[in-house]
Design goal:
alpha+beta; five-stranded antiparallel β-sheet; three-stranded mixed β-sheet; 16 helices; about 55% helix
């Protein structure tokens, strides 16, 4: 099917239609907010926040995913807006049987059904960019088939064009943050999520990185039943994490430890991180009626970092641990921050120490450590915002975006679980043998095996 003309390529007619929908929804809210500012009214009115959430949520698709991501970047939007946008779940009404048949025929040919032992046309899950169907192969193995919604490429390009509207709003709230690199990062990652072949390679990469972790399962890819818009993999049985919140502390800690390992061990050993730690991207597997670990299900938003950036994360950890300011400054330099004054470093340290606090504190504790989960990070974000107002805008390096999002998202999961762990020892174990040169060699070999050597 690869030689046939692509009827869903990025087309002007599709983009224009999307522009109209997005412009009408988001533009209307933006205009109202601009008027409020002109007449001196409070921009953080809860009604404005709710209207923006409704406008984005009603669109589904790429802009909704961007909104979800923006809501997790601390202090990028006022608390009222972040709280509303966090309500956006990657859950869209599924498309019906007619779409399923068209998609499968387009990807695998007119005889697509004959390539499966069975195929359930009712989806088992639906998200912002596609939906998942349960199937079996001719050997009886259970499969998960992810079908991309139609015209997503045009929708993505249209929505990225409207990203400027969202960042224009951001600049009203936080002119002290230069979002140039953030916009580039979000655009590149979202485009990657449309490429299911790349997602399959990402899963292979994670399979290597987590091969020695019995608490984390990675699905096996089925390349002969996959294309750029159809991803087929082995089905992993599991239950939603939220169904374990009333379990005893031992069970909840087990799940939390698995989550921690799933995020930080691949980062420390292979320089990769899962940039989308929301609740729909993993499930919990059980043995003997007790949770044993997690299934990591989605690999669309994977960030490959340079070994130098990873070394900056480790350097900052040791800088805070040893109260060594020179190592802290060097860490920011390795991350890509440039031209920072001592005052700006002090302000950045407020947020960095907040993120690193559980990793430095050598004791069993919760992530929030007695702070109301709803207020967790709010005070630090406010201090950063106030501190940055005094100087020129800080340009946030693009690699920092998903790194920070992953840390915040993972912390949110720990808050849900009310986990009590020694996060310091878990992190120390992950970075204990860290060596930048060895990471570079290991990463290069893994990327080559996964078919990503020329895409990192």
């Amino acid at each position: 099917m690869d030689d046939a003309p692509d009827p869903e390529k990025n087309r002007l007619s599709r983009r224009v239609t999307r522009y109209a929908r997005v412009g009408a929804n988001v533009g209307g809210v933006a205009a109202k907010m601009a008027g409020a500012r002109l007449f001196g009214r409070d921009l953080s009115d809860q009604r404005n926040a709710a209207e923006l959430m409704a406008a984005l949520g009603g669109l589904k698709g790429p802009l909704m995913k961007l909104a979800q991501l923006l809501s997790t970047v601390p202090d990028l939007l006022p608390p009222e807006y972040a709280a509303e946008l966090q309500k956006l779940q990657a859950s869209a009404p599924p498309m019906g049987p007619a779409f399923v048949k068209r998609r499968m025929k387009a990807e695998l040919g007119v005889d697509w059904k004959q390539r499966f032992g069975s195929f359930e046309e009712t989806p088992s899950a639906a998200a912002s960019l596609g939906q998942v169907h349960r199937a079996t192969d001719h050997d009886g193995r259970t499969l998960a088939c992810k079908l991309q919604y139609p015209d997503m490429q045009s929708a993505v390009e249209a929505d990225l064009g409207q990203l400027g509207v969202v960042f224009a709003l951001q600049r009203r709230f936080n002119p002290e943050i230069d979002t140039t690199e953030i916009a580039k990062e979000l655009s590149e990652r979202l485009r990657e999520e449309l490429d299911y072949r790349r997602e399959a390679s990402n899963a292979v990469l994670y399979g290597q990185a987590l091969a020695a972790e019995p608490m984390i399962r990675v699905p096996e890819m089925v390349p002969e039943l996959s294309t750029g818009r159809l991803l087929t993999m082995g089905w992993l049985d599991g239950a939603p994490l939220l169904s374990f919140l009333d379990h005893d502390l031992e069970d909840r800690n087990r799940i939390a430890e698995a989550m921690f390992r799933a995020w930080w061990h691949p980062f420390a050993t292979h320089g990769i991180i899962h940039g989308d730690p929301h609740l729909g991207n993993y499930s919990v597997f059980e043995e003997g009626g007790r949770p044993e670990g997690i299934n990591l299900l989605d690999y669309g938003c994977i960030r490959i970092f340079t070994p130098r950036f990873v070394s900056g994360v480790v350097e900052l950890y040791h800088g805070f641990l040893d109260d060594d300011r020179d190592r802290v400054i060097e860490a920011y330099r390795r991350w890509g921050f440039t031209g920072l004054s001592n005052e700006q470093i002090d302000v950045l340290n407020i947020w960095a120490r907040f993120i690193y606090a559980p990793l430095i504190d050598d004791r069993v504790r919760t992530i929030a450590d007695g702070v109301d989960p709803h207020a967790y990070g709010r005070r630090e974000a406010w201090k950063v915002k106030q501190g940055l107002k005094a100087g020129p805008p800080i340009r946030v390096p693009r690699e920092f975006v998903l790194m920070d999002r992953a840390a915040i998202g993972l912390g949110s999961v720990m808050l849900h679980l009310k986990a009590e762990l020694n996060f310091h020892r878990l992190f120390a174990e992950a970075v204990d043998a860290f060596d930048e040169a060895k990471l570079a060699k290991r990463q290069a070999a893994a990327l080559k095996t996964a078919g990503l050597a020329d895409k990192s």
